[in-house]
Amino acid sequence: MKKFSFAFSIALTIAILTLSIIPNNPLQKLNWAVISVLILGLALVAMFWRFEKADVTAQEVALIATMSAFAAVSRVAFAFIMSVQPTTFFVMITGYVFGAQTGFLVGALSALVSNFFLGHGPWTPWQMFSWGLCGVLASLLAGHKESFNYRGFLILSVVSGYLFGWIMNLWHWVGFIYPLTWKTFFATYAVSFPFDTVHSLGNVIFAVLFSQLFYDILLRFKNKIRVVYIDSE
Fold first, then answer.
1. CATH number for position 204
2. How far is the C-alpha of 104 from the C-alpha of 129, rounded, in Å?
3. What percent of the chain has pLDDT over 90?
4. Distance CA 97, CA 184 (A)
């Protein structure tokens, strides 16, 4: 149910945002740069509020803080290499092991924290949403499997690299490109394709090198904090 509600919220947000790419519709003349930030901001607030009201343990909060810090620091450390950073990998492996809510929060917080060093702006909610979505998709890949789906994780690493870029391209298009036409839309995506490809390749490299290791470590931690209730009767 948690995965469904997160997936539904994200799908609804994306559906609303895609209104901006339909030429000649009555809403196209609106300032979608501002509107999109407001929409994503409200979606993020709703998801953080949901976490605030959920029953979480101190260990889970510590895990989210730790993985968010890893993801944020790694992004800052790799900032000199265009489009290559381990952030997406950290977010995905966390979501894969701990589920949609934890994966989304780690993705959102890693963008928020790292931008204190790299620069905040109206793109921050977009980055928070995009990385959070990567964590949710990884949780959906995991499903209820007990073993690590290595091949599926590698494929999703490629998909997540392009998906992150495509969502951020939408922000760049509505925020900086005029006029909003199909021609400028496809031109924006064509220019970004090499950078999105590098991002995807970087995700695969990090996944090949570290996915099994981090999966084992995080799964061990998950088993340690798991609470099992035994009926005494």
1. 1.10.1760.20
2. 8
3. 34
4. 39
How far, CA to CA in Å, does 222 sit from each of 60, 81, 113, 131? 9, 33, 24, 22
Q: Domain count of the chain?
A: 1
pLDDT, tens digit (0-9, with 9 covering 90-100), for 135-152 = 999 998 887 777 888 999
| Tokens linked to 147 | 């073993």
Tokens of 50: 């949901």
Nearest-CA neighbor of 101 among 223, 10, 233, 193? 10
pLDDT digits (tens, 9 = 90+) for 107-143: 999 999 999 998 888 888 889 989 999 999 999 888 7
Q: Which residue has the higher pLDDT, 51 or 119?
A: 119
Residue 30 lies in a domain: yes
Residue 231 in any domain: the answer is: no
- Give the C-alpha separation, 190 to 118, whole Å: 25
